[in-house]
Amino acid sequence: MDTPAPRRRMRADARRNYERLLAEAATAFAEHGADFSLEEIARRAGVANGTLYGHFPTRRALLEALLGDRMRALAANGADLLDHPSPFDGLAVWARTAMSHAATYRGLGTAFMQAVQDETAELHTACQAVLSVAEDLVARGRAAGAVRQDVTAPDLYALINAAAWAGEQGSAPQGERLLAFGLDGFRTPS
Amino acid sequence: MDTPAPRRRMRADARRNYERLLAEAATAFAEHGADFSLEEIARRAGVANGTLYGHFPTRRALLEALLGDRMRALAANGADLLDHPSPFDGLAVWARTAMSHAATYRGLGTAFMQAVQDETAELHTACQAVLSVAEDLVARGRAAGAVRQDVTAPDLYALINAAAWAGEQGSAPQGERLLAFGLDGFRTPS
DNA sequence: ACCTGAACACCGTTCAAGT
DNA sequence: ACCTGAACACCGTTCAAGT
């Protein structure tokens, strides 16, 4: 149901290769991180080297195809949480979701941090959408006096990805702890 | 004055190669990060490939030679700060120093997180010393009621390295902001 | 005791040739 | 329109041969 669909009609064999590549990439990235060898992914998909590059000219394009939809869903989820009774809790709940999303593959935090800055990155639009909803959540928290006035959307974005990164290094709980402490640091002192 | 000295006596040519390799590695890592090609470093040092491996069997050994002394100095600096009039500020000052130290080369945060867990890592002892002083600083803060009871040394260690990581990605100030928010999250709510 | 440089296995990326 | 597989340039690591 959430097989990412290519943008346009494709020949049947092309479509099959496209989907095999995505499937192999998904399991390989999940197991070995987003830096896993593209050559090996092509091999596992039973496809020549150049075929992979034909469909995904860069590793980031492959990541976009794998994660783009989910990132847009994450942005939508954040927009929903603007209705949360507690501005602070709404932000915190979303941040935890975003972090576990960034922990899908090892190395994603780095990819997300770069993509949001690099306008040519395939993931740029999706990351911008996420940053934008972060902005809304932070603004609401500030307006309600629940979040410190000097907290910005890039702060939240960086915290989420840094916590995901820490989870990849040490242990997953370490990432969650870091996120929790950081979020508490965002709080207006009482 | 802080040229790291090899452990034992060496032949004159060996010593020269050793020092050239260290010097080239230092400038290359500073400019391009700690993942820079070892082959290219050997080339710049005017030395054959295998010579580098003779002196530094692994990239981590090279990092240890470059950073070990400074890491031990960092640990000593933390011990001094146990005398700081404010337990919280002492911890915070040290954390900022530690973070700027972890920002010496791009990629160091990752190396430090791995080294502290992997007992076979050349940097393990140095990282343990740093973790140990983090433990002392946190314990003092907790005892004084300035730091939350559930904060641990690994939390502080992870925060420092994650903030350094965030500074490598986005911008350096972003790393400092993250550290500041995280440290505030460590604070006992007033 | 130390250095050299070739050897091996691997990777990303491109591109002419095929169908 | 798409696929193939070779080609190129690069890297980490090891090791026999030299001095």
TrEMBL record, chains A, B:
The keyword Transcription regulation applies. It comes from Nonomuraea longicatena. InterPro entries: Homeodomain-like_sf, HTH-type_TetR-like_transc_reg, HTH_TetR, Tet_transcr_reg_TetR-rel_C_sf, TetR_SbtR-like_C. Residues 37-56 bind DNA. The keyword Coiled coil does not apply. Residues 15-74 form the HTH tetR-type domain. This is TetR/AcrR family transcriptional regulator. Keywords: DNA-binding, Transcription, Transcription regulation. It comes from the Bacteria.
